[in-house]
Design goal:
The protein has 612 residues and is of the alpha+beta class. It is built from 14 helices and 33 strands. Strands 6-15-18-17-16-19 form a six-stranded antiparallel barrel.
Length: 612
């Protein structure tokens, strides 16, 4: 009845219901619940993840699970190893760093710290990745021909053996100078000056009179008169020669029969006037210099070498020179003299080289660069060297450029030639003179110690002490420590040395650790019986040898250190301390602080040990 009487709601009534306060409240509640749900879900997810990580960490810390467990154990281990890799500076500027890059102090590239050879304290293992980063390269030890080039800079000077001074033979006046300026070239026999001298005139008159008397006595029958006149003629002629006249001038005087108070001075050698010491009209005393001449057909090159270099060259050795004023031209010379004295100021040795100057191109005072080929191992002073120009030749002992094929006289000084072999030259080429050499970059030196790193196995580098010889360019001779064919590090070796230092192995800082150990094998059958207690007693007495007899007796009674319970001689000579009027011995100085901090404790300990 009631349901029938109900009527459907009109549209106006429905609209009023949706806009009612109740409907608005419902909508606000639904919107709030939606926003809370939207924000709460990710927060709960994050909280759950964090809680899971914390729980896993605690479980792993308690040891219930292992970091290597599960299918991803290998990757996790590799990641951990990568995180634990340390990087070091080659210059040791900073402690090892955890990230690669450059050193913050010196800006050098950091290298990974890899584990060194624990089984071999003389080597270090470098993995391929670290090797590429450190740019480690190796080169083989080679046997090379023993020759190197000594280079020096010197100055050209006059050949002192060719210097001549023209002086006045008698008192007189210079009427005329024909060579009237410095630098004029003259030929042997050229007229240099005209000298007026009354003494020379009287000498000519005496010669003419002696000649006339000798000619007149040719018809006499008295031999004594003839001999006397002949002696008079010879003496007056010799006197004119000593006054500066030549044989040609005397012959002309005898032909003319007329004395002349003026005489020409002639050049004794061909050369150049290097000094003009007088002027026309000047009156000269006997012996006063007029000219100084030099023969420039040969010049000297004056070098200064260090003693170790000068010891490798010898008389007659070939030298090539390039002068500053003539670029591109080479001049050959030979060593003429090696000074036996070392300059006390410069600490060098003078070496004189003679160079032929037939063309007159070399100028005195010019600088020249000299190069001398010597054995690479520095044994030129003991070994014979081969020079094709001196093979089976004879050489002058004073003029090394005088070389002849047969014995004879020197054309310059007239002394006997000697075989070139007497000066250390051989007739056969030295084809077998070789030595081991490595690049200079392979050597690390500190003071008198030099080391190299040899790659004994792929990636394994062993330190070697080496004894070095002479150097030539980028190569250096190794006298001891290496064998031919071994591979040495020539690049990155300083980084290898840094790795050795960090591993506590021998390195450039302390190469003495790398000295090879000497293993001695004993023949047990030939050994005398050993009394072991006696050996122990000797060892103890060596440790306590610095103590007085009374202290040695006390050490034997105490036996052990009260702090460490170690034998008193285990750390060397025991340390004696008076504590509460009692002498107490310690194994080392490090135990002093502990003993003085609690003396009663350790005195009681010693008292218990003393009680039988």
């Amino acid at each position: 009845m009631n349901e029938k009487n109900k009527k459907p709601a009109t549209s106006s009534e429905h609209s009023d219901g949706e806009n009612s306060p109740l409907a608005a409240t419902v909508r606000r509640r639904e919107s709030r619940r939606w926003w809370i749900k939207l924000a709460l879900q990710p927060l709960l997810l994050l909280a759950g993840g964090a809680l899971l990580i914390i729980v896993l960490g605690l479980v792993q810390k308690l040891g219930w699970i292992s970091a290597e467990s599960g299918s991803g154990g290998h990757d996790h281990t590799a990641s951990a190893e990568s995180e634990n890799t340390r990087y070091i500076c080659p210059m040791m500027c900073t402690p090892p760093l955890s990230e690669p890059g450059r050193c913050p102090v010196c800006a050098m590239e950091l290298m990974p710290l890899t584990s060194g050879g624990a089984n071999d304290p003389r080597s270090v293992q470098i993995d391929p990745a670290a090797r590429r980063v450190a740019n480690i390269r190796t080169a083989a030890v080679k046997s090379v021909a023993l020759s190197r080039t000594l280079r020096a800079v010197g100055e050209l000077a006059y050949d002192e053996g060719s210097l001549k001074t023209i002086s006045a033979y008698v008192d007189g006046r210079l009427e005329r100078l024909y060579a009237d300026f410095t630098g004029v070239a003259v030929t042997q026999g050229d007229q240099l000056a005209l000298v007026y001298s009354p003494r020379l005139y009287s000498g000519q008159v005496e010669l003419l009179l002696a000649k006339k008397a000798l000619d007149a006595s040719q018809t006499t029958s008295l031999p004594r008169v003839l001999e006397s006149n002949r002696d008079m003629y010879k003496s007056t002629k010799q006197r004119l020669l000593e006054l500066g006249m030549t044989h040609e001038q005397i012959q002309q005087l005898e032909l003319s029969g007329e004395a002349n108070s003026r005489m020409h001075l002639h050049a004794p050698i061909s050369g150049t006037v290097i000094k003009k010491l007088a002027a026309e009209g000047q009156y000269l005393k006997e012996g006063e210099a007029i000219y100084e001449l030099a023969d420039l057909s040969t010049v000297w090159l004056m070098l200064e070498l260090f003693p170790e270099d000068a010891a490798t060259i010898r008389y007659g050795q070939k030298v090539e020179a390039k002068v500053q004023s003539l670029p591109g031209r080479k001049f050959a010379g030979r060593v003429a003299f090696v000074d036996p004295m070392v300059d006390p100021v410069k600490r060098t040795i003078g070496v004189r080289v003679v160079i032929l100057n037939d063309e007159g191109l070399l100028k005195i005072g010019d600088y020249a660069k000299a190069s001398i080929q010597v054995p690479l191992d520095g044994t030129a002073a003991q070994e014979k060297i081969y020079d094709p120009a001196l093979a089976n030749k004879w050489i002058s002992p004073r003029h090394p450029y005088v070389v002849e094929s047969a014995p004879g006289k020197c054309r310059v000084c007239g002394i006997d030639l000697v075989p070139a072999s007497q000066f250390g030259f051989t007739d056969q080429p030295n084809s077998n003179r070789e030595a081991l050499a490595i690049p200079r970059t392979a050597v690390l030196s500190a003071g008198d110690d030099s080391v190299v790193y040899v790659e004994t196995e792929p990636g394994k580098f062993e330190i070697r002490n080496v004894v070095l010889g002479a150097r030539s360019g980028d190569q250096i001779v190794v006298l001891e420590g290496l064998k031919e064919g071994e591979q040495v590090a020539v690049s990155g070796n300083f980084l290898i040395d840094s790795q050795m230092q960090l591993s506590g192995n021998p390195s450039l800082i302390d190469p003495t650790k790398a000295q090879p150990t000497v293993e001695i094998e004993f023949d047990e059958g030939n050994l005398p019986p050993i009394d072991m207690p006696q050996i122990i007693e000797d060892t103890d007495s060596k440790a306590t040898s610095g103590l007085s007899p009374e202290d040695q007796r006390l050490v034997e009674q105490q036996e052990v250190c009260p702090v460490t319970d170690l034998p008193l001689d285990s750390m060397g000579t025991p340390i004696k301390i008076i504590v509460q009027g009692r002498p107490v011995f310690l194994c080392c100085e490090g135990c002093r602080k502990s003993l003085l901090a609690d003396p009663d404790k350790y005195l009681k300990k010693l008292a218990k040990e003393d009680t039988p």
